[in-house]
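User: Can you predict the 3D structure for this chain?
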Amino acid sequence: MEIERDRIYAVISGDVIGSSKLSPSKRAELPDIMKQASNELRTFLAGSIPLSVDIFSGDSWQLLVSEPGEALKAALFYRSSIIVATEKMIDTRLVIAVGKVDFVPGERASEGDGEAFRLSGRSLKEASKQQMRFVAEQCADCDLWDATFGLIDVVVRRWSAKQTQAVVGAFQGRSHAEIAAGFKPPIERESATRLLTNANWHAIEQVVKIFKSKFSATYG
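Assistant: Here is the predicted structure, written as structure tokens:
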């Protein structure tokens, strides 16, 4: 992949949590689940996700985001999609790093190098109980964003599978009626609204918008 050397990117590094609880047959399906989530992400964030998710070392993965302001939305959508597809049997830790990228040979993000890759990978190894982290080399409020990610993580962990499915639909810009129709069997529109309310969707949406505004203005 051709990299713009003066451009700032975001790299999201993650690893799956709880895959050992899956049966061998379900575990074998996990790469396909992760790739499908990547395909859906690239569809609704077209232009910001230049490469498909790169899965390596079993349960580890990386995504390259060409527009740093979209990184939080991308991370939450990807995490939520995996939770929904496995009916909350598994989850994933992740770190968003913002910085320069030196190169990405071919089409595999995990083979890339540069500030963002090094920060993301190192921070994931150092992550403990907080399943969402943020790091950047030059960022006056990095600690504030990292703490905010910790609060978001607390909210996400409390979502039910149905709440998470409703949030995935909301990220895609679907109306409450469309979200309700996407359930199997379909649910009432009012039920979809209630799921989003109980998932604190409005608060999550606001943080995602602020993150986009902040990092698009800084690095756009």
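The CA atoms of residues 33 and 85 lie 7 Å apart. DSSP finds eight helices and five strands in the chain.
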